[in-house]
Backbone:
């Protein structure tokens, strides 16, 4: 019986070769997209899975409920108190530096070692890397110890058994306490060396408002995380507020409203890569991942729809076969199983083809996402094969049940063609397919518009030809280093101007604190800078004046602010000049002398945040944060100027250190990469959807028009023109397309409007994508269907009318 079913199946595949190829092609494309996105998702979810303690390690995030914003920082006393007063918290580890680099000297060589981390002494309790040399006990206790990875140990000593050896950093000796081997599995935490911030943590032990650390907590098994968050509020946040609210004359609750944070969030360590609201090590984008996954599933669904449509359209060809088989005793369940088998063979063949195509496309996909995914995870095969079975059931069961329900007597009499049930089913499914296609066209156009709008938007500054050089060497007085070299670097041929700014577009680095005026407080970024920095970056002055080095007041307590700062306080420009505020980093009042136009330094997706600009010498501690020098280059010989700058830097400024530099406009452009990739993927998926849909439409229209060839022959005999016949044959499909687009418009409007809500700077919802979707689909439908319709007008009249 199975052998006969397979023979019949292959006879039908050959007879309907066009629809067979279209089904194979559509399902292969759909399953390939599904597997690639599934592997991408699986890879993002695999981070930190290697950690044996992952079930009980949670990343800490603060939550400001009023503004619904999240932070990834904590202060030392808050972490220490949590262990003391909350029973569920067993331990904590703090980070206050990652991606660090130092010039290290051993008795063998001097090496600039990168990718280090500053972490508290519990680090190896949280991350039990394989120990190669030394001991983890007290490995990070003290300010003169260092732990090395096997790679760093080989770089410095040429071997890994180096516990007890000495490493010099900035003329300070560190003893190697442990050598560890980093995990080969995916992890965001892979430091090549670790130094404990012992002295800094000691100084910050009473600084409750110094949120300079990232934190993981080790919790007891079975901890109720929601209850823990409430305990954190009661025992940590309120405790801090009660200490500090007295000086401000407000209640603890009011203090938290003013200065925050008002809540906390705990995310399991193996979920931070994709699901954390904020993370010290960077957050993923789960929303985009779900969009991509949903779109890949939709392509598979479209392929299944093609299958259903073509099978039901071919029903008339198999009506007599079914009638005969029923007449000789075949049961309905046997017929359903037979048609399901025919569907499974096509689906399984598509599955094998998609595995080969996925393997072929994987290197390009890895390059696109900067990953190293390989097809060695059984989950990929399991879920993709489960999708094949689902497609088999969905695309096989509907036509199988439909065909198996034919009445033997009616089909043998030839009355099946008069049934309208098949027509309604096909038209309904075709409408659904065109609704999805319309959504992709509308969505693709809106995504393109939004990305183009962000890339073309005036950012409020000019970073063109501005080269930023990061200080790699840790100087005791970095501001003096900057002041010493800026005049010398200005003399280099091709350098037009020199300056320094803390808040640099695209750098991702910033610090902020509360700014208080009477009973109101806001958070604002710090923009410590040299006097000429804003003019250097071509930022526009809205009102007031620039800072002047010749005015003593401008070096003490005068500042500039941006428009967002003024708006956040609810002031007018004139009120801003009259009001004084107190920043969280100082006790004296500060006076605003100028307001600059907003310019975007973080992300084109986010709104410009309040920033206060002041000279780096105004606050004593800010001098120690001077970390770069910026040069504006003349346009005539940029390559030559770069060579001269690099030579001077490596010979006179930081010999032995890498030349860590970038152009600001190019660095900020990297923040667009994510959205450009979304745009590219949406365009690719859009093309795939349209291809699958139009191929299905062509095959379906071909079958349906073939069923009407006798009608065409009769009408042509009666004198109908080719144009009239073509319009008559395509009219039904054009109406279906129009209805589908009209249904898709409100759905697309809602979904794309939700997507645009994530952008602070967004386009107004345009009308033309909706209109263009209708016009484009009507043109494509007419073009695809009219090909077969035109062929139908050339029908051989004798062939169809000889028995009439």
Residues:
């Amino acid at each position: 019986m199975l052998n006969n079913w397979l023979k019949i199946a292959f006879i039908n595949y050959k007879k309907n070769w066009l629809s067979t190829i279209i089904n194979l092609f559509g399902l292969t494309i759909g399953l390939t997209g599904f597997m690639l996105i599934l592997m991408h998702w699986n890879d993002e979810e695999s981070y930190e899975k290697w950690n044996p303690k992952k079930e009980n390690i949670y990343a800490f995030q603060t939550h400001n409920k009023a503004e619904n914003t999240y932070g990834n920082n904590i202060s030392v006393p808050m972490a220490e108190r949590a262990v003391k007063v909350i029973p569920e918290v067993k331990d904590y580890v703090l980070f206050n530096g990652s991606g660090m680099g130092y010039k290290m000297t051993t008795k063998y060589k001097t090496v600039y070692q990168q990718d280090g981390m500053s972490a508290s002494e519990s680090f190896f309790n949280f991350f039990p890397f394989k120990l190669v040399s030394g001991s983890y006990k007290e490995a990070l206790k003290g300010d003169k110890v260092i732990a090395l990875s096997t790679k760093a140990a080989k770089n410095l000593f040429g071997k890994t058994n180096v516990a007890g050896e000495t490493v010099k950093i900035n003329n300070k000796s560190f003893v190697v306490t442990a050598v560890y081997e980093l995990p080969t599995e995916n992890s965001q935490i892979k430091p090549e060396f670790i130094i404990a911030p012992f002295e800094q943590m000691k100084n910050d032990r009473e600084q409750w408002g110094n949120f300079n650390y990232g934190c993981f907590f080790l919790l007891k098994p079975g901890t109720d995380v929601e209850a823990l968050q409430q305990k954190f509020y009661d025992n940590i946040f309120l405790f801090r507020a009660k200490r500090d609210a007295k000086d401000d004359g407000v209640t603890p609750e009011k203090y938290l409203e003013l200065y925050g944070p008002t809540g906390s969030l705990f995310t399991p360590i193996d979920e931070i890569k994709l699901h954390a609201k904020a993370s010290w090590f960077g957050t993923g984008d789960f929303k985009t991942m779900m969009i991509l996954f949903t779109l890949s599933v939709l392509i598979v669904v479209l392929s299944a729809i093609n299958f259903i449509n073509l099978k039901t359209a071919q029903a008339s060809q198999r009506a007599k076969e079914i009638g005969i088989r029923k007449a000789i005793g075949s049961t309905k369940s046997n017929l359903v199983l037979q048609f399901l088998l025919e569907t499974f063979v096509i689906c399984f063949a598509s599955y094998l083809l998609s595995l080969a195509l996925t393997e072929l496309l994987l290197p390009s996909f890895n390059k696109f996402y900067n990953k190293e995914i390989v097809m060695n995870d059984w989950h990929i095969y399991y879920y993709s094969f489960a999708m094949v079975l689902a497609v088999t059931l969905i695309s096989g069961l509907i036509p199988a049940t439909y065909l198996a329900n034919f009445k033997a007597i009616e089909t043998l009499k030839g009355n099946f063609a008069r049934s309208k049930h098949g027509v309604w089913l096909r038209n309904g499914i075709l409408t659904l397919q065109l609704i999805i296609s319309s959504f992709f066209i509308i969505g693709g156009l809106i995504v393109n518009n939004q990305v183009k709008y962000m890339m073309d938007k005036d950012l409020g500054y000019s970073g063109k030809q501005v080269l930023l050089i990061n200080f790699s060497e840790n100087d005791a007085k970095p501001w003096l280093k900057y002041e010493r070299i800026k005049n010398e670097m200005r003399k280099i041929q091709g350098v037009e101007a020199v300056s320094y700014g803390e808040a640099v577009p695209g750098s991702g680095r910033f610090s902020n604190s509360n700014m208080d005026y009477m009973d109101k407080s806001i958070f604002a970024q710090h923009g410590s800078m040299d006097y000429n920095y804003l003019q250097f970056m071509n930022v526009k002055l809205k009102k007031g004046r620039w800072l002047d080095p010749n005015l003593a007041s401008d070096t003490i307590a005068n500042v500039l602010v941006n428009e967002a700062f003024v708006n956040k306080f609810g002031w007018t420009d004139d009120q801003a000049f009259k009001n004084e505020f107190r920043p969280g980093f100082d006790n004296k009042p500060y006076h605003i002398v100028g307001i600059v136009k907003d310019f975007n330094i973080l992300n084109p997706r986010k709104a410009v945040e309040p920033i206060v600009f002041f000279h780096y010498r105004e606050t004593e501690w800010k001098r120690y944060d001077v970390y770069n020098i910026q040069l504006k280059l003349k346009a005539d010989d940029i390559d030559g100027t770069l060579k001269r700058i690099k030579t001077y830097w490596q010979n006179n400024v930081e010999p032995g250190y890498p030349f860590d530099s970038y152009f600001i406009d190019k660095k900020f452009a990297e923040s667009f990469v994510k959205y450009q990739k979304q745009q590219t993927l949406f365009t690719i998926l859009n093309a795939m959807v349209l291809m699958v849909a139009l191929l299905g439409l062509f095959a379906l229209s071909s079958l349906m028009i073939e069923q009407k060839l006798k009608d065409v022959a009769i009408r042509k005999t009666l004198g109908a023109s080719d144009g009239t016949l073509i319009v008559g044959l395509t009219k039904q499909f054009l109406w279906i397309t129009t209805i589908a687009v009209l249904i898709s418009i409100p759905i697309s409007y809602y979904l794309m409007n939700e997507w645009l809500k994530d952008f602070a700077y967004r386009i107004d919802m345009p009308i033309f994508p909706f209109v263009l979707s209708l016009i484009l689909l009507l043109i494509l439908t007419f073009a695809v269907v009219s090909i077969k319709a035109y062929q139908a007008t050339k029908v051989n009249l004798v062939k169809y009318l000889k028995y009439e």
